[in-house]
């Protein structure tokens, strides 16, 4: 089991490249959405200094939640593409990137290269990577497209060229939903 997990992690971070995993959930949220595995709690987040930070999910907005790390080579492609996606849908889509580096300075240095304008949070080692655990992240990067009701509608494990176009096409019907 451990070897399988290590192999999956290596593939997600740029090893052999099978197609990215995409999970598609039903288009309509169910009445018991909060009881389904696709409904995630809105975790309380805080900046590394302990100040209040925005919730990971934007209430009433489609949200793209992206887990990344500075040591992850594909993340250096995904972060700028998320920036372009955020700019294209500014005001309609929230983008939140969650850094999984053990050292906040490494995360901040990595992000500063890309002039990021969307929200970036640090999942500190002291928090035992609480956000990544809550979101069941097992590879870097991992991206979740969440509808206006807080349901994960699409999941992307790893990164492949063209993922931003795929995510953009996933956003269109979600933005049209009430």
Describe the structure.
The chain has 178 residues and is an alpha/beta fold. It has a single domain (2-176), classed as Glutaredoxin (3-Layer(aba) Sandwich), CATH 3.40.30. 30% of the residues lie in helices and 19% in strands. It contains 5 helices and 6 strands; from the N terminus they run H-E-E-H-E-H-E-H-E-E-H. The protein has helices at residues 2-12, 75-88, 104-112, 130-134, 163-176; strands at residues 21-24, 62-68, 93-99, 119-122, 142-146, 152-157. It has a 6-stranded mixed beta sheet with strand order 1-6-5-2-3-4. The chain is globular and about 40 Å long. Residues 1-54 have low confidence and may be disordered.
Characterize this entry briefly.
With 178 residues, the protein is α/β, with parallel strands linked by helices. Helices cover 30% and strands 19% of the residues. Residues 1-54 have low confidence and may be disordered.
């Amino acid at each position: 089991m451990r070897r399988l997990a290590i192999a999956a992690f290596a593939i997600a971070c740029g090893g052999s490249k099978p197609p990215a995993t995409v999970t598609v959930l039903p288009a309509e949220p169910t009445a018991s959405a909060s009881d389904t595995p696709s409904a995630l709690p809105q975790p309380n987040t805080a900046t590394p200094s302990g100040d209040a930070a925005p919730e990971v999910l934007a209430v009433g907005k489609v949200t793209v939640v992206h887990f990344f790390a500075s040591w992850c080579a594909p993340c250096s492609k995904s972060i700028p593409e998320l920036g372009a996606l955020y700019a294209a849908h500014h005001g309609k889509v929230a983008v939140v990137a969650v850094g999984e580096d053990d050292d906040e300075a490494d995360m901040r240095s990595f992000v500063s290269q890309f002039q990021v304008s969307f929200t970036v949070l640090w999942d500190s080692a002291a928090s035992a990577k609480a956000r990544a655990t809550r979101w069941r992240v097992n590879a870097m990067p991992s991206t979740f497209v969440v509808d206006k009701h807080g349901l994960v509608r699409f999941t992307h494990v790893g990164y492949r060229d063209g993922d931003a176009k795929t995510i953009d096409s996933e956003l269109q019907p979600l933005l049209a939903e009430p």
